[in-house]
Amino acid sequence: MTSQPPSVIALGQPTVGEPELRAIAEVFRSGWIAGNGPTGMRFAEEFARVAGTAHALPVTNCTAALHLAVAALGAGPGDEVVVADYTFPATGHAVVFTGATPVFADVRPDTATVDPAAVEAAVTERTVGIIAVDALGQCADYTELQAVADARGLWLVEDAACSAGATYQGRPAGSFGDAACFSFHGRKGITAGEGGALTTDRDDVAAQARKTHAFGIESALARSGSADLPIPEFDEIGWNYKLSDVAAAIMLAQLERLPGLVAARQAVADAYGELLGDLELVDLPVTVPDRTHSWQSYVVTLDPSVSRGAVARELRSRGVQCNIGTYASHLQPVYGATTPCPVSADLFRRHLAIPMHANLTEAEVERVATTLRDAVMTSR
Ligand SMILES: *Cc1c(COP(=O)(O)O)cnc(C)c1O
């Protein structure tokens, strides 16, 4: 008898199926599949409820949401925006889109979220705003960050790309600062393949983002309510960042699943905690007591004596996918950053993401834990 090669355990996986297929069929029958239609409006209302904000604007992706937010808040050439260093570099890119300069601030070693003291130290007379990141699915320190923003007269944006379903001091992710930006990319907790949303309590930010996400004019749906022949006027340049109503339909189905998906991921995190808690040379992720995690990623920190490359090779050869945590932005040559962020640089070298999604079985979680244990033992 020959042994079968082990099946591959995916690092991440969307949870999609019949409800999403039914939603797609329904939106097809409705006749409106472009963006800014009735299904998109319904999704916007539902999503604002989930984020606990007055407004939600569905957009093509989180990078677009960040661009709209930073632009609506007025950043431009000559301005500096303090950005959490440890993030997918879309956060820094969005600042560059507006002509402003991202200034990266270092992060907490335990949560990888931006260190409010580092933010404060990075502020200059050119600083106009702060972008914090809910790193790997855990909210940043919004009480402290809002205090820094208020004291210095700065705006604050929450990059909530990874944190749909997470909470901070009892409030949902997406409800902090002047605006928040979500991602519905296939690797995030809820997904339409690609997609995003901007949430805000500020009427002015919502109105400006709504206008500039659709070329700089009022939406086709708003115009279609008028009796005569309305001719919109272009008085400002905007982008085309509208989420299609097909994607919005998928997102409505995903929103119904959100509490269950977060609970499933929490159960996986709890199981990893039990199976790996005693493993030497590996630190498990920390959840601060005043917040709940969405577990977009489960990222462990390897001791410096462990070769991450060797651990990754061993995991992959045994059918367990893995990856880095995320990026140290200041080390990406495109930004030409000169100020070091040593904690972020260290996490960038030592973090290892192991499989985390809502479809993992108990047996798979056990296999990941056993394989990681073996890999760490043999990789020094
Ligand atoms: C994924 C991600 C983004 C980009 O999201 P898109 O929807 O792919 O544009 C931005 N910021 C963070 C923290 C992310 O993880």
Automatic annotation (TrEMBL):
<dbReference type="InterPro" id="IPR015422">
    <property type="entry name" value="PyrdxlP-dep_Trfase_small"/>
</dbReference>
<dbReference type="InterPro" id="IPR015424">
    <property type="entry name" value="PyrdxlP-dep_Trfase"/>
</dbReference>
<dbReference type="GO" id="GO:0000271">
    <property type="term" value="P:polysaccharide biosynthetic process"/>
</dbReference>
<comment type="similarity">
    <text>Belongs to the DegT/DnrJ/EryC1 family.</text>
</comment>
<feature type="active site" description="Proton acceptor">
    <location>
        <position position="188"/>
    </location>
</feature>
<dbReference type="InterPro" id="IPR000653">
    <property type="entry name" value="DegT/StrS_aminotransferase"/>
</dbReference>
<protein>
    <submittedName>
        <fullName>dTDP-4-amino-4,6-dideoxygalactose transaminase</fullName>
    </submittedName>
</protein>
<keyword id="KW-0663">Pyridoxal phosphate</keyword>
<dbReference type="GO" id="GO:0030170">
    <property type="term" value="F:pyridoxal phosphate binding"/>
</dbReference>
<feature type="modified residue" description="N6-(pyridoxal phosphate)lysine">
    <location>
        <position position="188"/>
    </location>
</feature>
<dbReference type="Pfam" id="PF01041">
    <property type="entry name" value="DegT_DnrJ_EryC1"/>
</dbReference>
<dbReference type="GO" id="GO:0008483">
    <property type="term" value="F:transaminase activity"/>
</dbReference>
<dbReference type="InterPro" id="IPR015421">
    <property type="entry name" value="PyrdxlP-dep_Trfase_major"/>
</dbReference>
